Amino acid sequence: MNKSNTTEKYTYERPDVKRAISGRMKILHKLNNEKSYSTRDLYNEWVVLKDKWNLHLTLCSIHSSKDYSDEYWIHELEYLSQSGIELNKIDIQITDSFLKRGRIGDLSKYIGNTALKRFKSKTSSFEKDALEIAEYRSIQDWIDYRNSLKFRIQGKIMNIHNLFMMLYSTKRNERKSAYNLITKSFSNDRINNILNRLIHIRDEISKFSSFDNYEELVESESFRDWDYKEAFYFKELVKEFIVPILMDVQIRKSRKLNIRTLENYDDNIFFKSGNPKIKGKQEVILKKCIDSLSEFTNEDIANYAKDMFDNNLIDAAKRKYKTHGAYCWPIDGTDDSYILINMLNNNDLPETFFHEFGHAIHFHYSSDYHIHELRKSSREILEIPSISLELFSQEVFHKFYGKESENKKIIHIISLLTLICKICILDDWQRIIYRNPNMSQEDRNIFWENAEKEFTPWLTPNPERWKHDYTIFESPFYDLDYGIATICSLQLWIEYKEDKKSTLKKYLKLCSLGGKKGFQETLKYVKLENPFNRKTFKKISKELKTFLEKY
User: Over the range 247-270, which residues count as b (16 or more CB within 10 Å of their CB) and which as e?
Assistant: First the structure.
């Protein structure tokens, strides 16, 4: 295996740590001792150094995801993580030097107030670096545990992902068996211990950063222009408008499936004959996805997808030891991204590809900012382009699902609404456990169970269902951003059905902003309604009810 080839377009080379440190130290010396060097030039020089390091860190991470069993990339990532601690220490000193009286005025003029606010957040204490390494290792412990789970079913060896796919079986006894096995495999102290460790590590990181708890740290680092009060109101609106829609769906679903009492293992199936399926090879489906973009977007977007495909920046092949799921990873210092998809069947491949490619469009259109802090937006903005493109792609579902395309659209919308409700559970639960790091596991489970009763009343509460969700371990507090983005994307979807051309123009306007504006300022700029507003929910729910009458 050639360890240097990550893609045809970009080549991984282990960065020279000594050179990376030397380059930063020269900038630091100039900042503190050489007033003749302009703030702008030193900032740009620093950005180039960071981009070079981050490029190879990203390429290494991509390779590791392509084959998580490869020891070379495991050790390479560990090396880069350890080396990154030393570089981060110097970067903090550089940040502090830029913020001194003699430089901060020029810096503010050059990068602007939004970027300056994000720039200031980079100052931190060195002590938390070791804790962040401990956090990374605890997350890896969780990932290793999930990947190690094996089950013998009907003479075949299956992993946890195979079991989750069995929840879509048309045979109810298979769904029940899979659900019980999943529940049993996660009911152990190892997962409880991993979560306990993560909660306390993150609590310590927060304290080092002068925050009372991890929730406050995340709020600060996310650059949100809304707070827990607006988050609470958003969740109340979900209970008022979204939960009743889904309760009505359950009544119809019970009739369609001819099941009087729906159980938890019936949650993912919507038609007695099964959910819509796609026939054909994965590479053929992917090519059809790329070719269909010109039919519901524009020529520039379609050509960019072809360029990514031609340069091996899209990997949708099934392989053993390839990271399960899907992601889009921006390649630092370029206008490109890398998309990895690894799914056990092809039935959701189109919407998954279009979701990840929506991220790629966002990164591509906003990558030209020379201001490092403005390239990436806050997380709720980040998800709007991806979820929106996924919704726009319903226009070409017939190419993949044929006569079942209308059924697929219905499932698509129901799944997004269900996810919003489950996100509210996650957010409520994470806030309480990080505000109370010494909370007992029993109390955590009770709180989870009560939250399920509020947001998913059609399900039988499962106090340990939190163990099924990877974001709790890998990216806490990310979920509510996704739910908020979904409400914004549904607005674009409604507009797109009425006027595709103007909606696409608005979509690309949003993508091109990157992180230039805050969330609520961005919504005003592209003329989207505020998701913390009751009128917004009322308008969307009316459209959703009409759409779901087809079910």
Answer: eebbeebeeebeeeebebbbbbbb
3-state secondary structure of 327: strand
Query: Order of strands, edge to edge, in the sheet holding 314-315?
Result: 314-315, 337-342, 325-330
| pLDDT tens per residue across span 464-514 | 999 999 899 999 998 999 999 999 999 999 999 999 999 999 999 999 998
Q: Are residue 67 and residue 171 in the same domain, yes or no? A: no
Residue that is last in its domain, among 89, 123, 157: 123
Q: Is 132 found in the same domain as 119?
A: no
35 inside domain: yes
Structural domain harbouring 486: 217-270+351-551
Q: Domain for residue 345, yes or no? A: no
Q: What is the mean pLDDT of residues 32-53?
A: 91
Are 200 and 232 in a shared domain? no
User: Which DSSP symbol is given to 338?
Assistant: E
Average pLDDT for 356-375: 86
Contact assessment for residue 147 and residue 159, using Cβ atoms and an 8 Å cutoff: yes
**423 and 479 Cβ atoms separated by less than 8 Å:** yes
Q: Are 305 and 290 in contact (CB under 8 A)?
A: yes
DSSP one-letter code for 321 = T
Whether pTM > 0.85 for this model: the answer is: yes
Q: pLDDT tens digits, residue range 82-94? A: 898 889 889 989 9
Over residues 408-433, the mean pLDDT reads 97
For the beta carbon of residue 365, count every other beta carbon within 10 angstroms: 21
